[in-house]
Structure formats: structure tokens, C-alpha cells
Known about the structure:
The protein contains 4 helices and 7 strands.
Amino acid sequence: NLMSDQITPQPKSTKAKRPVRLFILVSEGTISRAEYFAAILRTYHSGATVIGTHTVGAMGEMVRLPLYGDLSMSFTCGEVTFDGVSYFKKGIAPDILVHLQPADLLTGTDRILQTAIDLAHGSQH
């Protein structure tokens, strides 16, 4: 077979793999599906660190109720858990809490992002 003659298996790397660090940035604006995503990453990625402020806990099971024409209404009606942990009405508490300052809005400073960048470069918080 022409294809199998052209494919040469590559030797496995003997270099030790470093664990992947993952920073999940959250705030009170992280709601619903974004909270699901953060909770899944925190639960199933051992190198995940949640950074920011507490989320609101708007992450129950969504139900869509069709109304008239193209109109519909969505609401939360059930609780979803990740490894037995429910964040519904509780939110996600960050591993590293970042206190936001009103002046940050005026200066365009993103303290949550800067904290993650500092950690990625080896700074301790």
C-alpha cells in the first residue's frame, strides 16, 4: 500500500511532560453556561486554578418554554452537580480571590487577568 509505505512511526519522546496549568478567570458576571464551563474545568482538570471573584450560582437546569410565534421564555428549574458538588444558588468560590477596585474601571486595569499572568510567570499571590 502506497500510504503505509510513506508513514514512518515517530519514536515517543523521552522528555518528561510538564503538567499543564490552567487558569479559569471568573467574576460576578460569570453566569449560567460560563459557570458550567468553569465548574467542569475545575472538577476534571487537576491543574486548574480558579481566579477572580465569586460567581452568582445561576447554573441550574434550563428549561425553554415556547410562547407565541418566535417568542420563548427560559428559566432554571433543576440543580446540576459536578462530582456531588452543587454550585446552584451558591456560585463558584475562586481559589485565588482578587479584590476589584472602582479605580480599575477608570484605568482599564483587569486585576483578574493580571493575577493570572503573574501566576503564569511564576509570581506568588
